[in-house]
Amino acid sequence: MNTMHYLDQFFFQLYPYIALAVFLIGSWVRFDRDAYTWRTGSSQLLSDRWLFWGSNLFHIGVIAILLGHFVGLLTPEWAYKPFISSGTKQLLAMAVGGFFGALCLIGLSMLIIRRLTQPRVRVNTAGRDWLVLWLLLAQLLLGLFSIVVSADHLDGAVMVQLGHWAQHIVTFRWGAADFVADVHWVYKAHIALGMTLFLIFPFTRLVHIWSVPLGYLRRPWQVVRRRGATLRYAGK
């Protein structure tokens, strides 16, 4: 067995479990021991320039992308084959993924530029925040590039292989790495970097994802006054 085989076995058979274990256990430990750090660390008070559009475009894009990956990779082939072919499913994934990937890229770029150009925001950006931003950007670019690569094989075969890999991982079956051993490097890099994001998740502000603020939608307006005088700002 050559070196590449061992690398495939580590990154696509063992590494996902290491990353997911750190993701789950690390998140629980952080919430239990450092609950006061469980927050987004919003910089809106420092500067709101580009924040509205950047944040909304990024979050809309990333939520759609994550849902698409979840459904696309974990839906067994037998479940969708009676209704749609693998090739058509791939074309649909490329179109939807490309659209929301573009939205996400625009939003993320705005957030990065904002942190680079706004002095107060830049000074209050920790090293781990930069790490997350650059890794997210790299992951997004890899995902968009994979769409370009996918245009060279529209029969859906590679998408089926990636689906088998994901389904083997979540069902704790050995042999998952064999499904991605011969795919294009961009898919491998996309998977490995995705697992790395899970790995660092508990140590960054990404933990706020666990706290989906559904109650925020029903939250009443807060009235903010300066020294009890004239109403200055009202918002959630």
TrEMBL record:
InterPro entries: Heme-iron_electron_transfer (IPR051936), NarG-like_domain (IPR023234), NarG-like_sf (IPR036197), Nitrate_red_gam (IPR003816). The keyword Membrane applies. It comes from Rehaibacterium terrae. This is nitrate reductase (quinone). Dimer of heterotrimers each composed of an alpha, a beta and a gamma chain. Alpha and beta are catalytic chains; gamma chains are involved in binding the enzyme complex to the cytoplasmic membrane. Keywords: Cell membrane, Electron transport, Heme, Iron, Membrane, Metal-binding, Nitrate assimilation, Oxidoreductase, Transmembrane, Transmembrane helix, Transport. It is an enzyme of class 1 (oxidoreductase). Heme b binds at residues 59, 69, 190, 208. Its main location: membrane. The chain crosses the membrane at residues 12-29, 50-71, 91-111, 131-151, 191-217. The lineage of its organism: Bacteria, Pseudomonadati, Pseudomonadota, Gammaproteobacteria, Lysobacterales.
